[in-house]
């Protein structure tokens, strides 16, 4: 297992390019199950989660090759409709194969994902949505076993806005007979990107990017090509790094990003005191003289993303005062807090609220990654800490950040990957 060794105190400046969005790729790849043939997905990030999804689709018989950041997927060779436990347990997004398999083949056996580091993370909305479309679903032997003749359009109102359930039900509904209406649909850019991709495959969907989707089922779709949208969470993480340890006489510029997907984060960074220049596809940030404490409450898009909550806590740990961080999506997603405290952060958590009192300095230590975004917050705090921070179990970071250490190093950070030992 790898670890990152970070020497704190270096000032960041320069330019980096955003990678493609992990959460978009993980939805686009299974969409290729919906029509037989060859697809090209450009700007696909090179990540562990993408590799896991590739392996899952390969076990189902698909042929996948990668040339730089372009994935070519041939779905004409499908032989199996099963997502086995060994893949799903590594990555919950494996459940995205459920909707397309039921919609096209009327058959899917997908292992139940189970819990994760920060809570139970149910899939009831995926199952209820597909049942509304006419699928018969049983939970048996740890698997979701779904069977259907052709699905029928239905009206679905999600109790909770869910990214995954919206993606799954949308993929199932595009081949259903008749019209499906989804209300309280997720509006996240990654779901909008999936909707656009499905449309380019011949699907008829109105309201892409809104919380009201109307899908007119078609008899068949065709393969397509697409360019994956930039990763807003990676961009936001790099912006926070710059706000924390940027060079005050210079700037950090992130190119090939989509600033409009990040408004909730960039606005808060301005509130903190950073100076931002926002273009069509770039954001430039000059760090604040001192970090103002700013409260955040996570919410569905276009609110402040839960996937940026841990990084915000790292930033607030060096603010001039107290801030309140309220997590509304996953109430116990605070696994990073005990590790941040080891670096000197002053944070208390009660229920779904973290209170962060800014400190004057952090000091390097060995810390353990517990999940993807938690690991990012540890790297950020390590960049700001005095001395050496070792972030163990960086495979969590490799799930969702493409070569984060190289990007940070190119901006001037001292960060190295140490490989080949058991950490
Ligand atoms: C996706 C993202 C993840 C992000 C999350 C919230 C991917 C691959 N992952 O995860 O990075 O943190 O959105 O923005 O895109 N819920 C239910 N029942 C369900 C499904 C969800 O109650 O059947 C609840 C969840 O517990 C949570 C909320 O709905 O409280 C939102 O979760 P959801 O949007 O489904 O998250 P994911 O799609 O798993």
Total strands = 24
What summary fits the major beta sheet? Answer: 4 strands, mixed
Mean pLDDT: 96
Approximate strand percentage: 15-25%
Shape: elongated
Order of strands in the sheet with the most strands?
22-23-1-24
> Counting H and I runs of at least 4 residues, what is the number of helices?
14
Give a list of the ligands: uridine-diphosphate-N-acetylglucosamine
Please state the CA-atom Rg, rounded to the nearest Å: 21 Å
Explain what you see.
The structure is a single chain. By secondary structure, this protein is α/β, with parallel strands linked by helices. It is 31% helix and 24% strand. The protein contains 14 helices and 24 strands. The protein has helices spanning 22-31, 48-59, 85-88, 98-105, 124-132, 163-173, 189-200, 232-245, 263-272, 309-316, 336-342, 372-384, 395-400, 404-410; strands spanning 3-7, 14-17, 38-42, 63-67, 70-74, 82-83, 107-111, 136-140, 143-147, 155-157, 179-183, 204-206, 212-216, 225-227, 252-255, 275-278, 282-286, 296-297, 322-326, 346-350, 353-357, 366-368, 388-392, 414-418. It has a 4-stranded mixed beta sheet. A 4-stranded mixed beta sheet has the order 2-15-17-16, covered by helices on one side. The longest helix is centred in the middle third of the chain and has 14 residues, at 232-245. The radius of gyration is 21 Å and the shape is elongated.
